[in-house]
Design brief:
about 50% helix, 14 helices, alpha/beta, 8 strands, binds S-adenosylmethionine, eight-stranded mixed sheet, single chain
């Protein structure tokens, strides 16, 4: 099930290990499809009617639904199965990485130093202090998080995230597991065809899944990915070099990067903010505003805000905040993304949001249609298109 790790840092898993990974992916499919729909049925047929009988109204908020469902057997079963399969994802990939950890370091060094296929750069800062909200947490139950190091030049945490994501995503995110960025950046290039950025920054890049597609969209631009985790950026650089995409990676804190004022045309992040406390998101947005050139754009593709979802869907997504070591997830989803942009200095009229259909699932034509529909609606950039069922990615941001 680690077939999406299709570059030179691929781990040579045994047949037993691969079988175990397949089993874990299958188990996750069962939990996310069958168990989750059973839970919804119990909610519709029992929990919501009981709530209505008692309070004379339907549940209105995600916390109300959470409280009402919590004592149901199906909720407990779903939750413990989800936690267990999440832990099994990491356990199914770690033994092979431990076995090959020294080899992975050596291979990454060779890839990083070679200019045969690509010539991106790598900067690691051993003095960087890792923010507490990352240093003291194994986010989404991933042992060691994105930054822990056990040997010189360690890349293991990058490898764990890459292989683990492949088991976790069950083929859902496309061949290079970059469907989110592929979809969002395709939408962006179609919606703003005359915008030609020269310098692009990806904040919280981990392995560079989110970084490389922007270089592919804008080959003339210098594209840089930053992350606080040294193993992540080392691995990201090796991976990019292996794919032959010249991209720069640096170990930096997005709150104070050291980049010059007005040095980027595009500053973005992919599934990054929901792991960050609100006060640090505010500092990151201010830093982005400082680094953006006038006429440049900040954008973030993220989980949709609770205000755009039904109470049940909000409850369902917020589950991670309570049970999957994602403590900042709910507060982020409860906030108003545009208010946060304005607080960082962006003008309200320059804010936008959109929903990009998945390139992997629906293809380029569906994205072109979404762009054409959004333009036809003629409601301005603040009108995001429809957030409907199906695979699609929510994005918000602002022009400077
Ligand atoms: C969920 S991952 C992002 C995934 C990645 N963008 C992708 O699409 O595959 C969040 C990343 O943000 C990094 N991070 C957390 N706080 C950071 C900060 N203040 N500055 C830079 N990176 C940070 C973490 O180390 C982690 O690698």
């Amino acid at each position: 099930m680690t077939e999406n790790v299709n570059h030179d840092l691929k781990v040579d898993y045994s047949r037993d290990e691969l079988a175990r990974q397949h089993f874990v992916s299958g188990m996750r499919t069962y939990v996310l499809n069958s168990l989750s729909s059973n839970m919804r049925t119990v909610y519709d047929n029992k929990v919501a009617p009981n709530f209505k009988k008692k309070k004379n109204r339907a549940p209105k908020t995600a916390p109300e639904i959470h409280k009402a469902l919590k004592s149901e057997t199906i909720f407990k079963f779903y939750s413990s199965m989800r936690c267990n399969t999440q832990e099994m994802v990491w356990r199914s990939v770690i033994p092979g990485i431990e076995r090959e950890s020294e080899e992975l370091v050596a291979k990454t060094k060779i890839l990083s130093q070679s200019t045969q296929k690509a010539n991106g750069t790598l900067t690691v800062d051993p003095k960087l202090s890792i923010p507490r909200y990352t240093a003291e947490l194994d986010v989404h139950l991933m042992p060691g998080n994105y930054h822990e190091e056990h040997m010189p030049d360690d890349v293991s945490q990058g490898a764990i995230y890459d292989n683990g994501l492949s088991v976790f995503a069950m083929g859902f995110l496309g061949e290079r597991m970059d469907d989110i960025t592929q979809s969002v950046s395709t939408y962006f290039t179609k919606r703003y065809p005359d915008f030609k950025p020269k310098a692009i920054l990806d904040m919280g890049c981990t392995l560079g899944h989110s970084t490389l597609p922007w270089k592919e969209r804008y080959p003339q631009a210098e594209v840089t990915g930053i992350d606080v985790g040294a193993p992540s950026v080392r691995y990201a650089h090796g991976r990019a070099q292996s794919y032959g995409v010249s991209t720069h990676f640096a170990q930096k804190d997005a709150e104070h990067t050291g980049f010059a004022d007005e040095s980027f045309d595009v500053i973005y992040s992919c599934m990054f903010l929901h792991e960050i406390p609100k006060k640090n998101i505010r500092a990151i947005f201010k830093e982005a505003y400082r680094m953006l050139k006038p006429g440049g754009v900040m954008l973030h593709y993220e989980l949709p805000p609770n205000s755009m979802l039904s109470a049940y869907d909000s409850f369902y997504l917020d589950w991670d905040s309570f049970y999957n070591k994602e403590p900042f997830y709910k507060a982020f989803r409860d906030s108003d993304p545009q208010e946060e942009c304005v607080a960082a200095g962006f003008k309200k009229g320059k804010c936008f949001q959109y929903v990009a259909p998945s390139l992997n699932f629906y293809g380029d034509a569906a994205i072109a249609k979404a762009v054409a529909d959004a333009k036809l609606d003629n409601k301005g950039e603040n009108h995001m298109g429809r957030l409907v069922d199906g695979v699609q990615w929510f994005t918000f941001g602002a022009w400077k």
